[in-house]
Design brief:
By secondary structure, the chain is an all-beta fold. It is built from no helices and 26 strands. The chain has a single domain, classed as Hexapeptide repeat proteins (UDP N-Acetylglucosamine Acyltransferase, domain 1), CATH 2.160.10.10. It has a 10-stranded mixed β-sheet with strand order 1-4-7-10-13-16-19-21-22-23, with no helix packed on it. Strands 3-6-9-12-15-18 form a 6-stranded parallel β-sheet, with no helix packed on it.
C-alpha cells in the first residue's frame, strides 16, 4: 500500500482520516472529523468541512468548497471551483442582529449525496437536500437545485436534464428540449454498452453488445 501524500502547506485538522494512496495538494484545508478515501486527489486550495465523507478514487479539483452535510461516494469527479451549499434560507445571526453569529450545523443544515461515478463540471453550484445519481453528469457552470437521476446529463441554471449518459461519459440519448422518452432501448455510440430508459429512469442492460 502507498502512503498518502500531503503537501506541507495543507492544513489537516485532528480527526481527519486519509486513505492510502491519496494526494492532498497545496493549501488544502480539511476540517476534522472528516474522511477521505483511498487513491483520492484533492486539488490545491480546496476546502472540506467537518463531517464530510469522501469515498475511494475521488478527484476533487482546485478551489472546491465542500460544506458540512455532503457525502461523496466512490469514483466521483468534482470540477474546479465547484461550491456545495447546505442552508436554503441562511442568515448570519438572529433576526434582531444582536445574537451570536450562526456557525456550525443545526436544524436547518441540509444533506447532499453524490453517488458513485458521477461527474460535476467546473464552477457548478450544488444546492442542499438533494442527490446526484450514479454516473450522472452536471455540465460546467450549472446550478443544481433538485436531485439529478442516475445517468442523466443536466445543464443550466437551474439545471435540467438534456440527455442520458453512459458510464464512459458519452451521451447515448438526447432529449432535444423534450422530456425523456417513455420507453426505449439505447446503445452508447462510443463503447456499445446497452441501456433501457423508461419514464426517464435508466437501467443498465449489461456490457457491450
Amino acid at each position: 500500500m502507498t502512503a498518502a501524500t500531503v503537501h506541507p502547506t495543507a492544513e489537516i485538522e485532528r480527526g481527519v482520516e486519509i486513505g492510502t494512496g491519496a494526494a492532498i495538494w497545496s493549501h488544502v484545508h480539511v476540517r476534522g472529523p472528516a474522511r477521505i478515501g483511498d487513491d483520492c486527489i484533492v486539488g490545491e486550495k480546496s476546502y472540506i468541512a467537518y463531517g464530510v465523507t469522501v469515498g475511494d478514487r475521488v478527484k476533487i479539483n482546485a478551489f472546491v468548497y465542500v460544506c458540512t452535510g455532503v457525502a461523496i461516494e466512490d469514483g466521483v469527479m468534482v470540477g474546479a471551483a465547484t461550491v456545495f451549499t447546505n442552508d436554503r434560507y441562511p442568515r448570519a445571526t438572529t433576526p434582531d442582529l444582536d445574537g451570536l453569529l450562526a456557525s456550525g450545523p443545526g436544524e436547518a443544515t441540509q444533506h447532499t449525496v453524490v453517488r458513485e461515478g458521477a461527474s460535476i463540471g467546473a464552477r457548478c453550484v450544488i444546492g442542499g437536500d438533494l442527490e446526484i445519481g450514479r454516473f450522472a453528469m452536471v455540465g460546467m457552470g450549472s446550478t443544481v437545485t433538485r436531485s439529478v437521476p442516475p445517468f442523466h446529463l443536466v445543464v443550466g441554471s437551474p439545471a435540467v436534464s438534456i440527455a442520458c449518459v453512459c458510464r464512459c461519459g458519452e451521451p447515448f440519448l438526447r432529449f432535444a428540449g423534450a422530456a425523456a422518452p417513455d420507453a426505449c432501448a439505447a446503445e452508447c455510440p462510443r463503447c456499445a454498452r446497452r441501456y433501457r430508459v423508461e419514464a426517464g429512469t435508466v437501467s443498465e442492460l449489461g456490457g457491450a453488445a
